């Protein structure tokens, strides 16, 4: 732990680091590949929408010794089409059948009671109309749209519109990946899934805002110096907050992983998968996008500004002049060589590179009265 703390301190001071922004094309390519895979999975397999969205009936059986396959066969035979059966704790089952009305529900209930050797009165049946599911879906889309608009407005005011645009792209990236994973693994989409998707938006923004805040502070009056380009300052911001982002993400992922792999997997509480999978994938994607997508995008947007282009020319010219004189430039080409967390030097004397020291004069002091000699 002490080594990790020392690493975090060295990253914050800029003594070590990784060139995230410099290798941004690699991260962009990887993100595009993952996003395309998610979109293809969504287009080919589609989402496994729950009863709450499609309408139908949900049957919760008491403890029974019957297998899942037998319950599925019995439900499909009674309903005439596919059924989804989940094994719950202590031998209970949850059976979902789409497109079922009240009369059909009673018939399926009696058939399940007979085949599973349980009392019909012990089977709880809940009917959901398709109109209610449609309302839930519309409300979810409205909430997502309002959230996006408010986030963009806030970030544009608190930071600038380029950061707001980068954060919005990162959010869309995270949501697309999460929805694509749901399509690929075939998990059921329920209101719990929607809650998880809306929740991860805040977590996804958390790390992004932390990096943006550091970037805003370090890039203040950036055009008044000739040590760093904007991309290098952005890279320092990522490295300075890297350990913090990793720590917060791991701490958030641990309980969610417990819900997903232990609660939903080992204990058979399938309903926990609805929200835990979206949280797990979304948290991981949010941490990734804040480091590899959002901040490099901001650097790309800012480097197109005339002021930042002029700054980059001055920085490179200063380093070229220093290299020609055999001196070392103060600013690095990669984050691995970033110096200590010094303040920017003013551009009043742009020709000065390195420590400002005056050469000692060999004849200094000659011919001056000393006070002892008269």
From TrEMBL:
Membrane topology: Multi-pass membrane protein
Major site of localization recorded for this protein: membrane
Transmembrane feature ranges: 25-44, 140-157, 164-187, 193-215, 246-269, 275-299
Keywords: Cell membrane, Membrane, Protein transport, Translocation, Transmembrane, Transmembrane helix, Transport
Record domain Protein export membrane protein SecD/SecF C-terminal: where: 113-303
Coiled-coil blocks: none
Subunit field text: Forms a complex with SecD. Part of the essential Sec protein translocation apparatus which comprises SecA, SecYEG and auxiliary proteins SecDF. Other proteins may also be involved.
Entries under InterPro entries matching the protein: SecD/SecF_arch_bac, SecD/SecF_bac, SecD/SecF_CS, SecD_SecF_C, SecD_SecF_C_bact, SecF_bac
Organism per entry: Streptomyces alfalfae
PANTHER family in UniProt: PROTEIN TRANSLOCASE SUBUNIT SECF, PROTEIN-EXPORT MEMBRANE PROTEIN SEC
Annotated Acidic residues bias: 339-348
Biased composition (Basic and acidic residues): 327-338
Annotated compartments: Cell membrane
Pfam family of the protein (one): Sec_GG
Origin: domain of life: Bacteria
Name of the protein in its database record: Protein-export membrane protein SecF
Listed Basic residues bias regions: 363-374
């Amino acid at each position: 732990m002490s080594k990790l703390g020392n690493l975090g301190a060295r990253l914050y001071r800029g003594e070590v680091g990784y060139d995230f922004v410099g290798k941004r094309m690699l991260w962009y390519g990887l993100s595009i590949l993952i996003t395309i895979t998610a979109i293809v999975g969504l287009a080919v397999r589609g989402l496994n929408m729950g009863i709450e969205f499609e309408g139908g009936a949900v049957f919760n059986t008491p403890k029974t010794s019957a297998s899942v396959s037998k319950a599925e066969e019995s439900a499909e035979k009674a309903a005439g089409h596919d059924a989804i059966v989940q094994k719950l704790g202590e031998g209970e089952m949850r059976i979902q059948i789409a497109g079922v009305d009240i009369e059909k529900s009673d018939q399926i209930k009696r058939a399940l009671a007979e085949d599973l050797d349980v009392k019909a009165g012990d089977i709880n049946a809940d009917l959901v109309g398709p109109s209610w599911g449609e309302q839930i879906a519309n409300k979810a889309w409205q909430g997502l749209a309002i959230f996006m608009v408010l986030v963009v407005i806030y970030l544009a005011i608190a930071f600038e519109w380029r950061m707001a645009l980068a954060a919005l792209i990162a959010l869309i990236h995270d949501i697309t990946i999460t929805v694509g994973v749901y399509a690929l693994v075939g998990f059921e989409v329920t209101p719990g899934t929607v809650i998880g998707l809306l929740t991860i938006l805040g977590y996804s923004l958390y790390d992004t805002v932390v990096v943006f805040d550091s970037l805003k502070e370090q890039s203040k009056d950036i055009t008044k110096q000739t040590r760093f380009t904007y991309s290098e300052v952005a890279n320092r911001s990522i490295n300075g907050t890297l350990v913090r982002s990793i720590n917060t993400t791991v701490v958030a992922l641990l309980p969610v992983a417990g819900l997903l792999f232990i609660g939903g997997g080992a204990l058979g509480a399938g309903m926990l998968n609805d929200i835990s999978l979206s949280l797990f994938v979304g948290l991981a994607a949010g941490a990734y996008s804040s480091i590899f997508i959002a901040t490099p995008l901001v650097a790309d947007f800012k480097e197109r500004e005339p002021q930042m282009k002029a700054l980059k020319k001055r920085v490179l010219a200063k380093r070229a002049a220093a290299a020609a004189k055999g001196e070392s430039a103060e600013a690095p080409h990669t984050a691995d060589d970033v110096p200590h967390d010094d303040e920017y030097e003013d551009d009043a004397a742009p020709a000065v590179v390195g420590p400002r020291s005056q050469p000692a004069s060999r004849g200094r002091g000659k011919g001056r009265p000393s006070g002892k000699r008269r």
